Structure formats: C-alpha cells, structure tokens
Amino acid sequence: MDPARTLKDLATTAGPTGAQHVRWREAARSGPDKRVWMSGWFTATRIRPAGRSVKPDADGTYPEAWLLTQWPGPEASEPSDYWLSNLPPDTPLADLVRIAKARWRIEHDYRELKTALGLDHFEGRSWAGWHRHVTLVTAAHLFVTTRRLTRRDPGKALGQNRT
Known about the structure:
By secondary structure, the protein is of the alpha+beta class. It folds into 2 domains: 7-91, no CATH class; 106-150. The protein is built from 4 helices and 4 strands; from the N terminus they run αββββααα. The protein has helices spanning 7-14, 93-100, 103-115, 127-150; strands at 20-26, 37-47, 65-71, 81-85. The chain has a 4-stranded antiparallel β-sheet with strand order 1-2-3-4.
C-alpha cells in the first residue's frame, strides 16, 4: 500500500500538462447569434481516499474514487478546484466535469425559488399549508424553467425584458 499523500500532492503529480480542455455547458451570455461555452482544463485520477469517515472494504483496502482537478490553464503551478467522486472507473472525463459543475445550476434554481418565486415567504403554522405553498412554488418553477428552455433566447435570466 502506498503511503498517505496530501490532496495537493496527488493533484499536482499529473501536472497541468496532462490536463484536457473540457466544455461543460453553454454560458448564460450565449444567444441565437453567438454561442459561448463554459470550459476549463481538467485532470482526473483514480485514488483511494482515507480518513475517519471513509470505511475500508472487507479486504482492508479503501475504495477507489475519482480526484477531479480544475487547472486555471496549462501553465499553472497548481489546480484551482478539487472534487472527489465515487462514480464508476469507466466514467468519461466530460461526464465527471459536467456533474461536478452542476452545482451552479442547483444554486441558481434555489436562488430563483427563494427570491423570484417566493419559496421563503410562507408564514403559516400548519404542515398542510406549508406543503401547499411548496407544491405551488415547485409548479411555478417547473413552468418558468420550461419557458426558459423552450423560448428563442435561453440565455436571458428570469425577469429580464425580452426584445
């Protein structure tokens, strides 16, 4: 078994020269006449994380995981972001990146639910009232999301005027 190494040491072993350029989604500033993609430089390495919260397998070895690192560029000295993933070993790098970067979409939707659709405006006292409120806000979010995905200019945010 290899001796324990730091996360930074594991990430910098491959170095930025092994990083691949990956696009994960169309940027919000894209339009019908100009497509802009979110992209970056990434490496993915199979590692065996250890620690108090990681339980070893029956044979005493630690389970493998992906260490995904994002590099600011191919000439950088160290990564800017790190992710650990327990996805299968045959997962393509593009899928690892897309799933790791999905957090932006989740945070955006939650902010939209709270600020634009009133998720945090419930002031009742009953569980049934809270349940109705959350159900209606969720239905409104489904409607707004469907409209955003099917209109001609998907890059515009909720509440912006359409021309």
